[in-house]
Each structure stands twice: as C-alpha cells, then as structure tokens.
Amino acid sequence: MVFLIIGAMLIVYSRFDFKKSFLIFLTYKFFLVTNITVISVPGIPLLTLDLFLTLYYVVVFLYKKQNKMRLLQKFPYRIPFIALAISWFLSTIFSISGFSSAVSEFVKELFTQLLLIWVMWEIVRRKSDWVFLFNSITVCIFITCLYGYYEKVTQSNPLVAYEMTLVDDSSRAIDFTYDEEIGRGFRAQSVFEHAIGAGINWALYVLFVFTLYFRYRLNLVNWFSLLVAVMCIPCILFTNSRAPLVFLGIGSLAYINFKNKKFIISVFVIMIGLAVGSSLFEEYSANILSIFDSSYQKEVGGSNSDMRLEQLAAALAVMERSPILGLGYKFSRLLENDIHVSALLGLESIWFKVLTQFGIVGILSYTIYAAYSMVIIPKRYNSFPVFIISLAYWITASLTSTPGMLFHFFFIVILFFIRFSISQSKKGLIYVSQA
C-alpha cells in the first residue's frame, strides 16, 4: 500500500511539475520490483507499479510533445531501438503462444526498455536536471547499501518477504533469495530483484562516480558520493555473484587515470584497505577466483562453460522451430515440458534469449544494437566511458543473465556521458541544453 501511495503522489505532483516528478520517478524505480503490483489477478497479465508509472510518464510525454518524429531524429539510439522494436513486434505477431498472450510482454519491453530511455534523453537535459538526479540516486544507493549491510549481518531480507505478500495471486510472486545455497553461501540482494542485478547496480554506481572523479574531476562528485561508492564495493561482494565482478572489472578501465595524483593515492589506499580487510575478502576469495579457475567454480557452484554450451545447443534446437522470427514471448510456458526448453535453464546469456524468442531477425537487430553501443555511438561522441561501460555490459550479458539489473540506471549513466561529450565546449553548461 505504501508503494502505491507514493506512486499516486508522483502522478498528482506531475500535474504541477512534470519534469521534477519524472526525475523523482527515475530514482523511485530503484525500489520497484515485480512483486509490487497494481493488478495481479489470475488470468490477467501482471501489471506492476513500475510498468504502470512508466506507461503514465511516457504517454503523457507523447501527448504533451509536438513534432515527436523530429525529436526522435536526434536520439543517439534511434536506429538500434527501431530495429529492436520491429524485431520484437514481428516475433509477437507470429508468437507460438499467440498474439493476445505475447502482446502484453511486448508492450512492457517497448515502454520500459526503449521508449522510457528516449523520454529520459528528451527530459533530462540541463545541468540542474543532472545534479538533482545524481544527488537523488546517490541517496537511493546509500539506502540500498545500508540495507545490504543489514541483510548481510542478519542473513535475512524482510523487505523481500513483505513484497511477496503484495501479490494477490501468490503463485505469481517472485522469490530470488539465496539464503542456503550450497557452496556459495548467503547472497545479498538488498532492495533489488536479484543478487546478480544488485551487484551490477552497485558496480555501475562505482563506475559512474569514480569516472566522474578521476577522469573528469567534476565538482558534481562530493565526499558523500565517494563514500557511497566505496560502500558499494563490500556490497558487491555480499551478493556472492560473479557477473558484478566481471562488470566492475571491465568497467574500471573507464576511470583508470595514472596522470591523476588522486587516482594514484586512491590505489595505495585501496591496497592498504585490502590488506586490512583481508579476512572479509577471504570469505569471497573462492567466488572471485572461480572467474579464472574452474576448480574454484566447482566449489562455489553455479553454471560453467559446459553448461553454457549445453544451453546454446538447446537454444539452437528450439530456434529450429521458427528460425526467422523465433518463438516469441512466453513460449517457454507453452512448451515447459519440452526437453530442449527445459535444457535452456535460465537462458544465461542475452544471445540465448535472442535466438529462441526473436530468431535470425532478432540476432540482426541485437547485433546492430551492440555495434551502436560499443562502436558507433562512442566514436560519434568521442566518449571513452560510453565505450567501456557499454563493453562491460555486453560482455557480462553475453556470459550470463543479468536479472535485477536496472536498465534505466545503466542508460542514465550512458546518456550522462553522451550529454557531457557534446556539451563540454559550451560555456555555462556542463551538459547540453536544446530547450
């Protein structure tokens, strides 16, 4: 009920100040998970509060804005997003589960993964917008860190347990907690949907703050945001997940700057901190080493390269049923007893999902998306952080699944660096303003 009341307050506030309400919504999304629903009646597609508010803000924006196609022409991800939308829509039309069943998932993906990002690009433009958003996100991440420490100490997550009671149809409640996983131990997820996503979200904040501080030395970063970034690092370990470590390791190339004395000093401080806190890292050493050594991987459990190859073979076998457009959304529910579908397990690579759901057309659209993310856009805007952080995402998403990752937060960071790159020569603005 509390979550719904806050959502209603945001809608009311948007009637007076749409932009500020939207910025608050972007930070509120950090706490919105699938179990927080508006409608969860059996036989009707689940309507989460997150999706409901996303629909509201996108629809209102489209209603208010004139010359929408002209605005879309300036959006950096216009071509890959259009390619994705076409691929998704075609697969939905010919979905094996039926158009009426798959269309709800298509609408959800269209609004949350594509249209919301475009609206963010159009609304978050001025320096004051970014300062407010950055400070708000910092407070949110600080709260998630505090709760992550609490979760680690108590080995429990009462918030997740409470959120599961908010789903009227209990059979549709999602529980991703890992309180007794053999080998790996307890995995913290804080307020997020999943431990893996929690770790990636914390890692993304670390990359965001450290890149701003060490590479660009912007006064946007203060002592509090640096403190929160440091607090995120133990939380990443608490998730006991490999994906966040891979993401953080690759993404850290974005802020390495040996010409910056602060960076050199920070490296020495971190080394001292690692020595002092060696007992903490020892608990997670097997999980860290399992990234590089298969013997440790057997100790901590989870998927390995052989299992990934088996999933790939299963994905190709499933794809053969509809190679051009894939089987569409929700195919696994219809074919849950199929031996190949069962072998897909959790579709632990973005490409396994693309192969099965969207087929060859999907592979082409996602290849375009990856090319724009890692090559065309970073080169066009001459942004090294955009390249590295995008590279970190695509490698991580290709190696494993990323449940619980805040996709809008990822694009907040990416769009920030794009705006910065095209505006740093403009006097009086840190970021571009075309209003």
UniProtKB/TrEMBL annotation:
Q: Which Pfam families match?
A: Wzy_C
Which InterPro entries does UniProt cross-reference here? O-antigen_ligase-rel_domated, WaaL-like
Q: State if Membrane is listed as a keyword.
A: yes
A GO cellular component annotation here is: membrane
What keywords tag this UniProt record? Membrane, Transmembrane, Transmembrane helix
Localization per Swiss-Prot or TrEMBL: Membrane
Mode of membrane association: Multi-pass membrane protein
Per the UniProt record, which residue ranges are transmembrane?
21-38, 44-63, 75-100, 106-124, 131-150, 195-213, 220-237, 243-258, 263-281, 350-369, 381-399, 405-422
Entry keyword NAD: no
Q: Where is the O-antigen ligase-related domain?
A: 228-366
Q: Can you name this protein?
A: O-antigen ligase-related domain-containing protein
